[in-house]
Amino acid sequence: MSGPSHDPAVPAAELRASALWLPAGHPWRRLPGIGLAMAAAGLGGSLAFGLADPAARTQLWHSWLVGALFVLSVALGGLFFVLLQHATQAGWSVVVRRLAEHAMATLPFLALLFVPLLFGLGDLFHWSHADAVAGDPLLTHKRPYLNVPFFVLRTAAYFAVWSALAIWFGRQSRLQDRSGEHETTRRLRRASAPGLLLFALTVTFAAFDWLMSLDPHWYSTIFGVYFFSGSTVGILAFLSLVAIAARRAGLLSEVISAEHLHDLGKLLFAFVAFWAYIGFSQFFLVWYGNLPEETGFFAVRLSGSWRAASILLAVGHFVVPFFFLLPRTIKRHEGALAAASGWLLLMHLLDLHWLVMPNLHAAGISLGLLDGAALIGSVGAFLAAFGWSLRRSALVPIGDPRLPESLLFENP
Amino acid sequence: MALLRPRLPPSERFGALAEFATPAALYRACEGVRDAGYTRWDAHAPFPVHGLDRAMGLRASRLPWISLVLALGGAATGMGLQGWVSAIAYPLVISGKPYFSWPAFVPVTFELAVLGGALGAVFGMLALNQLPTLYHPLFGSARFERASDDGFFISIESWDPRFDAERTVELLRRLGATEVELVAS
């Protein structure tokens, strides 16, 4: 019961009539073109520089991996967000769910970013060299899992699962735009639980494969959850930024309100704390046990200039955003939430850089042109696919029966 | 015991009690009482009416600050106690680690921060609401029993600077009250 009386049918009818699509000639319609230009320049430049000089090849693949994982993690976060909203039958999030659907719609295209990496496996993964495995009892023991054919097969399977989920959930939602069928909502809810299970398994093993096996002697059973927590921070920051940017660009300003930003901010705050909880748990057990086969990972990252990066990560990815996002007014303020989101995306990138690069530059941080070029290229590829999806459907799931509830949503 | 008794107007009359038929009528009446400039008054409903805090013109609660201070206090206590014990009072080398091994103290620090925040939220809420209260003059009104069933009420206390028995009752009637009565202390 809210104070002013209202008829839930009215806003949906008004929305259907008004243009909830990207208007013709809107600057956001150029996103696919801009993204493709960035991808061509960034990725093309990376390949040209990296492959021309044999000494730069290893750097090329490591930089490429950081960029590709950065956009992949945001897209996977989008898939998780959509599955979670269906599983919990969330009403508040309907107005922002389509934006997350656009983010997950990039997954099939992001598979293309990982194809070139398959040619760099030898430069990335120590375990991919037969001679290295032969002289190493641990790697010999792990060979049934860590071998190139099975690795490629697993990667293909991850992308097949992610793409299938993203395509099916996106398609059902778009079909509902026209049909308005309530049964679609029920079907999506039923599918979301097994979807979450598949998501959890594939993301865990993908993190083991593409990040943890960069240092094949080291292992951490919580590693998949760590990658997942960072990815979720990534998508929530991305969703907040896109929602605010859309309002500033004259889109959805009547649809997405401070109430929805407040809820995105609350989730962002929660996952900042969750990331720290998981990150500290991983560090704590290694530090406490003090066993040589586990401490190597942190020994590298707590010496030289990597130590500064580790401290920046703890402070910048947790302490500062935790206290900054604590007050209610910050989460409801466009500018403040956008600043926190932009900063957290930067910290998420640092997190991935911090996971990958010490394997290549054990002595200390080493940033180069290839890092920038690969990042621009990956972000461009993501934006191209995101922009393409954005043009293809309404900006809001206009057929969702919970849309009126979402439009009228107010925080208690 | 002073703790269990609410702070009451120092006169024989507690104030005026008005009943409203629906939550919407209560909501609009609250806006009216707020706009008339009253400050010592309250609304009573059997269930939460969304937005009523705005209609009443209530300022943001101080409860988050109480919770934050106690959470930070809990964290400081956790880290401080463990640090003092391990590094100053009984310095022992445990598994070759430094005396002040802060990572080992984080779980207890975290738990005490959560405990402090939770206790602050619960007991701060009780304190701000002047609870527990064993007796309240409003219980003298037979009608008021329905505040926990199907009745919607506004009570204006007599120590409000704008309170005037006749004019306040008239205002409440004008705002749509179905019944208005004066309640003794």
**Overall geometry of chain A:** globular
Taking pLDDT < 50 over at least 5 consecutive residues as the criterion, the unreliable ranges of chain A are 1-10
Total separate domains of chain B: 2
- In round numbers, the mean pLDDT of chain B is 93
What is the chain-wise order of helices and strands of chain B? Answer: EHEHHHEHE
Reading the helices and strands of chain A in chain order gives HHHHHHHHHHHHHHHHHH
Structural class of chain B: alpha+beta
Helix content estimate of chain A? over 70%
Q: Major sheet of chain A, described briefly?
A: none
* Gap between N and C termini of chain B: 18 Å
CATH class of the largest domain in chain B: Alpha Beta
Q: What radius of gyration of chain B results from the CA coordinates?
A: 24 Å
Kindly describe this structure.
The complex is a heterodimer of chains A (412) and B (185). Chain A is built from 18 helices and no strands. With 412 residues, chain A is mostly helical. Chain A has one domain. In chain A, helix 2 (31-52) runs antiparallel to helix 3, helix 4 (94-104) crosses helix 17 and helix 10 (182-210) crosses helix 11. Chain A is globular. Chain B has five helices and four strands; from the N terminus they run E-H-E-H-H-H-E-H-E. Chain B has helices at 23-35, 52-56, 63-89, 102-128, 165-174, and strands at 13-20, 41-44, 152-157, 179-184. Chain B has a four-stranded antiparallel β-sheet with strand order 2-3-1-4. Chain B is 44% helix and 13% strand. The longest helix of chain B has 27 residues, at 63-89. The A-B interface holds A 1-5, 280, 283-284, 287-288, 290, 326-328, 410, 412 and B 23-24, 27-28, 47-52, 55, 60, 64, 68, 95-97, 103-104, 106-107.
Key structural traits:
heterodimer, A: 412 residues, mainly alpha, 18 helices, globular, disordered N terminus, B: 185 residues, alpha+beta, Alpha-Beta Plaits, 2 domains, 4-stranded antiparallel sheet, 5 helices, 44% helix, elongated
